């Protein structure tokens, strides 16, 4: 059973790649038909092995009511909007970068994403792309129109006017990207092992075309970089790292990276996944798998005072700004499913003027997400269910674009969420 748990999905992906490759030389239709049948058989075996175990699990969270359909509008099917600039939407559509200039009514393909082989062969299989972690994590559109983004394989750049994106910084799936307009772009390494090697921050000063190391952490100081946020108010960068207590740090860098100051360090309460700078403070969200230990936190820029604004149901990943409100969404981190809610993704709002917080909605997760907690499955096999928001320019007051992974109510699509009735506190 342990062999099945460890090797089932990688073996299936290899088989898919092999059979699709054979389709180049033989019958494409017959080969794809065989792959589909193989997928059905493998998934049937997987669910059969886990069904009884799934029924016996006592999840902490209860099934919550989804955000009502009346609040979700302008469905953009099959796309994940990742960036907004001057009213133009930049989105991921399977293995392509697409653009919309009519508020999401239609999208035109800009370029293919040159994923490493064999992952390019999964462009027709959304569920397999989810398992393979092929979603775009961070994006920026530079002053000259280049689109820079990170996903599986490293950092990619689509030069303005080109029809093909290029891998410009090979590094294992980085999850950070900070950009100072008309200035430097920063990306931190995301290393999963505990080797203790020196972790680097890479920078680009030519709109994402070339990269070089601009800062190196001492060996064993941190494991990886979670987030890099440019602060337009103080002209600096805020860098968050993880994962252990000693590796979790919140660091302020000058815009030229010549000066740095460790503002917070040394506990899971400093293990931030995202931060967002406002005029007088920085809001941060924690990413710890410990039970009942995740918070939305406020760091005062002048005094360094840290305040827990809201205790939330699970680890927090993605955030957004909507007017004077800070929006944050939980993710279904499986570390402590007996106490943390892994059956729902919860969205919170904080009024940055008075630091009041409110739960504004929930989205139930799909069955594959719940099955990933079973003993014959690998935790997080289907990627942790989460809700994401595009970066770049915010939408008009009280509205936000939202997409999801493992959330049936959102599917593989992006919606506009009307929060006007909830952001009144």
Continuous helix count: 4
Question: What's the pLDDT, averaged over the residues?
Answer: 88
Please give the share of residues in helix.
10-25%
Which radius of gyration do the C-alpha atoms yield?
21 Å
**In which order are the strands of the major sheet placed?**
5-4-3-2-27
What spatial form do the alpha-carbon principal axes imply?
globular
Low-confidence stretches: 1-7
C-alpha end-to-end distance: 52 Å
Please identify the structural class as seen in this structure.
mainly beta
Write the layout of secondary structure elements.
Elements: H1 2-22, H2 28-56, E1 72-77, E2 80-85, E3 88-93, E4 96-100, E5 108-112, H3 126-131, E6 138-141, E7 147-151, E8 154-158, E9 166-170, E10 178-179, E11 185-188, E12 200-204, E13 212-216, E14 224-231, E15 236-242, E16 249-254, E17 260-265, E18 272-277, E19 281-286, E20 295-300, E21 306-311, E22 316-322, E23 325-330, E24 344-351, E25 357-364, H4 367-371, E26 386-388, E27 391-392, E28 399-405, E29 413-418
Parallel strand pairs: 2-27
Antiparallel strand pairs: 1-29, 2-3, 3-4, 4-5, 6-7, 7-8, 8-9, 10-11, 11-12, 12-13, 14-15, 15-16, 16-17, 18-19, 19-20, 20-21, 22-23, 23-24, 24-25, 26-28, 28-29
Notes on the protein architecture:
The structure is a single chain. It is globular, with a radius of gyration of 21 Å. It contains four helices and 29 strands. Residues 1-7 have low confidence and may be disordered. The chain has 425 residues and is mainly beta. The strands form seven sheets. It has a five-stranded mixed β-sheet with strand order 5-4-3-2-27, with no helix packed on it.
């Amino acid at each position: 059973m342990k062999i099945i748990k460890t090797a089932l999905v990688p073996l299936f992906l290899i088989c898919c790649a092999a059979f699709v490759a054979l389709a180049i030389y033989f019958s494409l239709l017959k080969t794809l038909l065989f792959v589909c049948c193989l997928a059905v058989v493998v998934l049937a075996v997987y669910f059969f092995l886990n069904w009884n175990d799934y029924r016996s699990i006592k999840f902490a969270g209860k099934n919550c009511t989804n955000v009502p359909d009346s609040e979700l509008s302008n469905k953009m099917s099959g796309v994940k909007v990742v960036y907004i600039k001057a009213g133009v939407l930049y989105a991921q559509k399977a293995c392509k970068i697409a653009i919309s200039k009519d508020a999401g009514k239609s999208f035109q393909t800009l370029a293919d994403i040159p994923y490493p082989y064999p992952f390019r062969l999964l462009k027709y299989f959304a569920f397999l792309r989810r398992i393979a972690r092929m979603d775009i994590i961070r994006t920026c559109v530079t002053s000259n129109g280049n689109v820079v983004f990170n996903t599986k394989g490293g950092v990619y750049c689509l030069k303005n006017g080109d029809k093909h994106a290029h891998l410009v910084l090979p590094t294992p799936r980085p999850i950070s990207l900070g950009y100072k307009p008309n200035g430097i772009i920063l990306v931190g390494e995301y290393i999963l092992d505990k080797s203790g090697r020196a972790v680097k921050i890479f920078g680009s000063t030519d709109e994402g075309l070339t990269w070089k190391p601009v800062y190196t952490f001492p060996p064993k100081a941190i494991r990886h970089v979670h987030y890099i946020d440019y602060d337009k108010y103080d002209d600096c960068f805020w860098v968050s790292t993880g994962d252990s207590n000693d590796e979790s740090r919140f660091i302020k860098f000058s815009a030229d990276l010549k000066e740095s100051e460790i503002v917070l360090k040394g506990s899971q309460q400093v293990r931030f996944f995202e931060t967002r700078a406002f005029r007088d403070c920085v809001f941060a969200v924690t990413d710890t798998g410990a039970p009942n230990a995740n918070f939305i936190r406020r760091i005062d820029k002048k005094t360094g005072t840290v305040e827990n604004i809201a205790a939330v149901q699970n680890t927090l990943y993605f955030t957004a700004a909507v007017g004077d409100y800070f929006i944050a969404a939980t993710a279904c981190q499986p570390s402590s499913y007996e106490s943390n809610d892994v059956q729902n993704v919860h969205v919170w709002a904080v009024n940055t003027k008075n630091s009041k917080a409110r739960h504004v909605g929930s989205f139930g997760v799909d069955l594959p997400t719940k099955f990933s907690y079973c003993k014959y499955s690998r935790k997080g096999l289907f990627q942790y269910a989460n809700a994401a928001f595009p970066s770049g320019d915010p939408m008009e007051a009280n509205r936000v674009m939202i997409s999801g992974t493992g959330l049936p109510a959102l599917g593989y699509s992006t919606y506009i969420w009307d929060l006007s009735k909830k952001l009144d506190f």
